[in-house]
Structures
1.
Amino acid sequence: PATIYRQDYLPPSYLVDTVELGFDLDPARTIVASRLTMRRNPDSAERAIVLCGENLELVALRMNGKTLGKREYAIDDKTLRIPNAPERATLEIETLTAPRQNTTLNGLYVSNGNFFTQCEAEGFRHITYFPDRPDVMAKFTVMLRADKQRYPVLLSNGNLIEEGDLGDGRHFAKWEDPFKKPSYLFALVAARLECQEETFALADGREALLQVWVEEGNLDKTNYAMQSLKNSIRWDEQRYGLELDLDRFMIVAVGDFNMGAMENKGLNIFNTKYVLANPRVATDTDYAGIEAVVGHEYFHNWTGNRVTCRDWFQLSLKEGLTVFRDQEFSADMIGTDSGRAVSRIEQVRTLRQAQFPEDAGPMAHPVRPDSFVEINNFYTVTVYEKGAEVVRMIQTLVGREGFRKGMDLYFARHDGQAVECDDFRRAMADANGRDLAQFELWYSQAGTPVVRADTSYDAEAKTYTLTLSQSCPPTPGQQSKAPFHIPFAVGLLGANGRDLPLTIDGVAHGTGAVLELLEARQRFVFTDVAEAPTPSLLRDFSAPVILEYDYSDAELLHLFSHDSDPVNRWEAGQRLAMARLLKLTAAVAAGAKLELDETFINALRKMLSDASLDAAFREQALLLPSESMIADQLETVNPQAIHLARQFMRRTIGTELRADLFAQYDANQTPGPYSPDAGSAGRRGLKNLALAYLAAAPSPANNALAKMQFDTAGNMTDRVAALGALIHAEAEYASDALARFYDDFEHEALVVDKWFSMQAAAPGTDVAAVRELMLHPAFNIKNPNRVRSLVFAFCAGNPAQFHAADGSGYAFWAEQVGALDALNPQVASRLARSMDRWRRYAPALQLPMKKALQQVAKGKKLSNDVREVVGKALT
Ligand code: B3K
Ligand code: ZN
């Protein structure tokens, strides 16, 4: 397959002013009529009209009213070319597609009998011939025609301008989007659905109609999505002065969806997972996910839709920025400093769990990639989460107000345009009179930078010297890296645990400073430092780097008890835990005795019971680094040893802190009706973490507590926590509980997903058990949520079993990637990535992993998606 390079960008040969689309919707045979008014692009030397189209049957093609003869255009399986086209052309195109046959969930497809579309990144070309690239922006008018009984609801982007009956049992709706947009933002829905709706007053006095559309029986689960939408609109008005620009804004939930949601103009289409919630079926995590994703898609209306990407290499222009915006939104919704810190901690966890490994593996790529084979493979944690970190660093450098000025300038300059990541950086730099030239390297260089810190205190001179050195490991195609521009926040703690005042070069910085590391190595000297301090480095995780500093246990314990920066307070605990987990892992592998020191246990005890701290923070501070984070620290990965080491630590905590865990279990009850607010969710989180630790050290009393919670739970958060505890404790009651859980929720697809994923990720579940679960009547390989809940949860979420010594996990993986690829390449390719880091495993595992990869790679009908991923893994 062909590699596409960023540097080969050419402007489109023709621009499209207007698009009129007509759909005669039929699952077996949908006719799409398109009328495009086009004109030659003065910025292009090309004379031909070039349209993309895949899996389409061309029925008719007219230009300026005349049918084009076979010699007047060229067509292959990807493009339709009309050479020597006139300056202005009106094209009329008729094509046929078969939505019911479309299992890729890309383009126009059928889910549970209803029609939906997904066009980003290149789905529109599966609907009709079009210059399907984001720098072609046009005004769309859409006419939908369909059977009235089957599809009473007909939706598309923008405003409804006409609807009515067609007589023959069919009806129509005509929609007009007043804003020009690229084709990837087109959407339609034709379905039997119901909606919750309200009118909502916008800041300028206009009223907007807000709707959340769901399948019948789900109207009791739309409140939180609606509330989140209203909060998002308000937040964007207040924080960025950005208003909803349409009279109507719709969210539609669909059960078959490849990712989380899609920001189609005025018609966001969502995975049901990010819409449907009530206390009976959704957990606190689900509620938080809904708020974040509703916010994310809404915020795209400005960062993505009004200002879009010139080409797909610029994807992070909209994604990194919009993730940053949704993170800030969620943090503001909590509203407390400590809540903000907890959300920051969760962001750091995601980065370490998923982005750092990506940046260190075969698929490593810059935030703005230089090449790709399949763009859908580049909707990654690097483009999204690292992209958000890059935006966050800009805010750290220019300040919150400066950032707002930069945003204002960005919109003033680029509203209605398709632009590059550089344009965003330039607006930020210009609005603030800052040089962000070196900062560009965050967009162009892949890999996680390592910052090494060394310190020395001169008691005589009362100076404290911090030396920072940075480096970045090679990544595919990038052997050597230039130094990054790194905002590095620091504080210094005195022996009493308080922050010391900071003076650098005679300038006072209060008790916290943001240093700017620009060179490979740089020295910072703090003066008037009265005592040898404990450094608190990279506060608030001010840059997405790996920090190396030789902290002593005593220093970490000091920070864990006192750091005024909650993120670093948490970080100190993670370092204490990680050092011990690595030792334990080595001990397991060597067959040595496993031990955990009192000092560490006591530090956890103190944290657990410190009622002056929010429960949500204490939960974070007591969560251990995951198995994959531990793996990331090791030269050679032995998944079973890691698992046993971590289990040992959990069990020891459960045993040693038993009384304290029970006490916190009781102290953090949330009586009264369920509310997903951060305070209540935090208390439930801590309570259920206590339960999980108790389950790691099973005893009749501990298991009885889990059983009692399962039997009496008043909400899904408590119910799944109890079920998880029973499963992990291998309690006798576990299988009964699983059966009851299924019976109670078998008609709630999202809960059945939980039922599958809890089993898939359980330590006792091996490949044979997963195969058994796949035979369950509720398993459906065509439904991405179901596949993620079982196959992904096992391959990516149960490392000790997936990496079974006999290689059975790898054979299973190869089989599933192959089977999925035939149906849905995007989903298959995500699963393929669970073998990315095969080279780091113990030699006995490497060989069967490589074999499995090779087996997939030689598949005859492999998609570009999977081919790129396994090809890069094997390079
Ligand atoms: N922009 C979409 C992602 C589309 C993925 C295409 N494979 C969702 C989002 O980031 O909001
Ligand atoms: Zn997005």
2.
Amino acid sequence: TLDVDVATARAWLQAAATSMDDHADHLSALDAAIGDGDHGTNMRRGFSAVADKLAAAEPATAGELLTLTGRTLISTVGGASGPLYGSIFRAAGKRLAEPTADLAEALRDGLEAVQKLGGAQPGDKTIVDAYTPAVDALAAAVADGADPAGAARAAATAADEGAQATIPLLARKGRASYLGERSIGHQDPGATSTALIFAALADTLEA
Ligand code: ADP
Ligand code: MG
Ligand code: MG
């Protein structure tokens, strides 16, 4: 199982906030090619608000912390990505409230939630294209007996490969889908930010 305590969850979200700040220009440049150029500023605003909330609040459990993260993203990010990432973290937080649930299962619930909300399937050139291989790799690594850091690194690598694999895809959801064939040849910004979130988890568990 992949058990994370509240301090580890806090360190993960703080690392994610730093990463969104560091990569905001890159994420917005990706979004400028196939969207409206704001994905980096959206993610930076949302995760900076999460970091502020976490500095002020003392969630007692990792589940409460992820739920607070989800609520904060929904209320602070104007773009499509706010409700989408919000649904992921809220679903993961809800699952972690169950005594036997681990982070691998919780993140799997996040995938179900984002697909229910946004209707995207793998191959539609969205968050789902990085997130699906990441949770699959995480579950496989945990089943193989990998330690938490190793399992998270496998997930991060799979997420990054999934994000890169969006380049040849035609966008079928979100703003990029308005471009039709012209969306081909560009890496999806949301899949890229998802890979950064899994990389932040691996970095945190390795530290
Ligand atoms: P907006 O498109 O409102 O400006 P962002 O730029 O912050 O929002 O986010 C764009 C990203 O959101 C896309 O790159 C894509 O990965 C993701 N996205 C859009 N629609 C969906 C959806 N229905 N399901 C999953 N991800 C989606
Ligand atoms: Mg955008
Ligand atoms: Mg926008």
3.
Amino acid sequence: MRSEFAGGRADKRGGHAGPILLHISRVSSNANSPFLAGWSAPGVGRSATCERVGACAIYLKLNEFSVNLEFETEAKSLAGSDVTSSNLVLQQARILQDQFKELYGQNARVYCAPGRVNLIGEHTDYNDGFVMPVAMDMYTWVAAAPREDTQVHVYSRNLSEHAEMDLRDTNLQVQGHWSAYVLGVAASLRLAGQKVCGANLLVEGKVPMGAGLSSSASVEVAAGFALLAASGLSVTPVELATICQRAENEFAGARCGIMDQMMACCGRANYALMLDCRSLEFQLLPLFPDAQFVVCNSMVKHDHAASGYNARRADCETATRILSGEIPGVRALRDLTLMDLERFSQSLTEVVYRRARHVVSENGRVLAARSALERGDPELLGRLMRESHRSLRDDYEVSCPEVDTLVELACEQDGVYGSRITGGGFGGCTISLVQRSQVEEFGRSLAQRYEQATGKKSDIYIFQASDGAREALQ
Ligand code: GAF
């Protein structure tokens, strides 16, 4: 299934609730997180309520209204209504607009793109495989207005820093600098033949950085969307995703796959997206009515470029190169079965064999996970998630002791179907599938036990699946 940005507005009213954040031992700074509905109806009919729970936790609950029955179940379980979240949405966008005016003296339009959490299918995207992410209702915001010249100026609200480039510069050097995720996208748009013009940009990211929730892709996609719109241009979501991936590969220096950018462009509220990373075709899968995905941040920072991410990718390329010489028709690890791997295991080093085994087995798990969602079988998905974690820990070696602890503790809790590391790894977050009735107790108890075990405080995100990139104020 493909959709277009042009004419691709959401066809439902309402949308999704914001993340319910449980920050143990401190008050959430994200309580005012921005929330938007579909492209055509930002913020319609949702409401929020805040309540204190115990001595040290604060929850933000957002109600959901939708004409689609599937979503009503969620609305009931998240009921609460005293502050309209549409107000929060508009507030967030207007604040950025005001700040933009102060900074640049111009009126801006405001765009946003979500972070993502991957349910299953890790390190498969750059092997032409399958992934199953969900867009989270945490966003990067970009306010933008055109300039008369060929300059792109950007100010980061997170870092209080400015950066700029000239679009005629064919030798942009920004690797290692935060601006790579914005200016690199401008350069990548030009390389793709998009005649973007000069623009002023103001960026504010609300997706936690270095947590494996794809803050980079959300910046890239929001910036790409803003740059295109400021130039009166539009492309399909798949084109924008590809352009942003190229920016990350060539200008930021991280050899990421396509999953995160595709998710930031094509996410849909209340659905997971099963993506074939070879064809870039995707299927939307409804989430479980009685079970909820919960993200737990180990607070161990990861860094793709500095970590073993590129090294893992190189191992996969080695396996592909060797096995494509043995088995006709093999273009990527996606084309192999576990039996193929066994047969030619002697051609690979032990480490490269394990890397390939993770990728091949993980692809199988994503296909099985699709059936689990289609059949409404959380038990099966939970089992697959636990297997996925073991494979990422032992074969792919991208976990770390803190994340393993989070997964183990999660699996011991009542009402938990499964848990695994999510994202690029080397720290970051876990995702757990939990019975809806147990979610709050799960978050409270897991954070406490994790702190006892590691001395680290974990942030718990009880999020809603959101729509992809869009204009916030229309
Ligand atoms: C990171 C990358 F950016 C993705 O492309 C993907 O490879 C993921 O790690 C691992 O599944 O988020």
